[in-house]
């Protein structure tokens, strides 16, 4: 039996579709109240993992527990505790946004008020519109609304913001923060690494069906991947140096006046992620070492990790 503090527990999970191995020995936990971001390239196995945990797909081997229940055996009462936003949904019927939400609200014991959910996803002006007449991003908002209407304890979000305009994405982030504040556990996949960094507590990085790294968002990839880069211009030439003490370097550079084009760049989650994937795909290859200006300025690059590594970079 899973401890009460664990929302999802996955051990050595594997899945094959005929001859295609989609997951190989994946192990992780999601704690109650946590937002866990599952990140990885197209075809890595993220949706497969989510769909197994939702009870939509059977696993080939391994163990899974979701809110203390094996998803292959979860009944209606268990499903009512989950919120699900699939990566893709079928064609909607001829119903309005409000009708669809009211219909789904009827399946739950303690649903959120329909109008509150419509407002939370910013569809007030479209509440009376047929879903099939909505734009792609507006339909996606309906998917999110359906995922949260039942006040789920655990919310699965498979690329929820695909097609959202920037403002809608920010509004969605606020919605997720308020769900987090209420204690909702969340499993999120996204290709927007800024979104994962904004919302996630921990992340798992998956490639070729294997979990290649897992950890807190601000720690994943290890300390070396986080070393900042100081960049400045000297006689028209861009120079840069990786250093764990950027303030000291900046002070030194500023001794004789304001340095030209000064920047302190901290590797983003996207930088760290891209480096992890490159290292995984080309473990011994030069492809993960600097070859051109872009690589040379990549802050997560292991070949420029020395504190004293100062490089001249083509402007
Ligand atoms: N129904 C299926 N039948 C056969 N193979 C499948 C099926 N669904 C997924 N696969 C394969 O399993 C692998 C993992 O797919 P999955 O959809 O889990 O990837 P993903 O990480 O969600 O990718 P994306 O970022 O593109 O959504 C891929 O190689 C895919 O082709
Ligand atoms: Mg997917």
From TrEMBL:
Q: Which InterPro entries match?
A: AAA+_ATPase, ABC_transporter-like_ATP-bd, ABC_transporter-like_CS, ABC_transporter_ATP-binding, P-loop_NTPase
Q: Where in the cell is it found?
A: Cell membrane
A cellular component term (GO) from this record?
Answer: plasma membrane
Any single GO BP term: response to antibiotic
Name the principal localization, coarsely classed. membrane
**Positions of the ABC transporter domain:** 8-233
| Molecular function terms from GO | ATP binding; ATP hydrolysis activity
Is Nucleotide-binding among this UniProt entry's keywords? yes
The annotated regions of Basic and acidic residues compositional bias extend over 283-295
Annotated region Disordered: the residues are: 283-315
**Mode of membrane association:** Peripheral membrane protein
Keywords from UniProt, A to Z, are:
Antibiotic resistance, ATP-binding, Nucleotide-binding, Transport
Q: What's the name of the protein?
A: ABC-2 type transport system ATP-binding protein
Native organism is Homoserinimonas aerilata
